[in-house]
Prior knowledge:
Blueprint: H1 2-8, E1 15-18, H2 24-29, E2 34-37, H3 42-58, E3 63-66, E4 70-73, E5 77-83, E6 86-91, E7 95-99, H4 102-108, E8 113-117, E9 120-123, E10 127-131, E11 136-139, E12 144-146, H5 152-160
Parallel strand pairs: 1-2
Antiparallel strand pairs: 3-4, 5-6, 5-9, 6-7, 8-9, 10-11, 11-12
Amino acid sequence: MHGRVREKNKSVYIIFTSAYLEYILEAYKVKTFDFLPKPVTIEKLESTTIRLFEDINNENKKFISIANRIFINENDILYIQKDNMKAIIHTRTKTYTNYTSFSKIEKTLPKNFIRCHKSYIVNTQNISNVDVKNQTISFENKSRCFIGPKYKNTLMEVFYNGNFNCTNYTKSGIN
C-alpha cells in the first residue's frame, strides 16, 4: 500500500508507525520521513513534527495552521475573511472556517498578505485584478473581496511599489 502512495505523489511525507520493528525495512523501502515505534510518546511525536515542519519550510513552502489540525500552503490562500468570530480562509479550491481572532491570524501571516478591508486580508501574490472604481479585488477563480476606504491607500502603495503581481490594473480602474 505505501508503494502506491509513493507512485501517486513522490514528495508526500510518510511517517510510519508500528509495534513491530521488522517493519523498519518496509518503511525504508518507501522512503518514509520517519519511523515511530509504538507506543508513540508525545516527545517522539513532537520531535518528528518539528523536524517535518523544518523540512517543509526549507523547501520555501510555508503552511498556515488552522485549529492545530489543518495545514494550508500559504501560496494557495487567496484571501481571509472575517465573519463575526470566524475566520474564513478562501483557497483556490476549498474554503476553511476557523474560530479564532482575525488579528491573531494577521500577526502570523507573511508580508505578502495585506489588510484591504476591515473584514478581508488578501494574499497579494494571487490577485488577478484590482478595480479601484468599484473597490474590489478579484482572483483567478473569479472570487472577489472588497477594498475598504481606510485600507485603500495602503493597498495602492503596495501595488505602486511593485510588491505584488496584479495582471489588470490602471489608475482609473481595472479593464
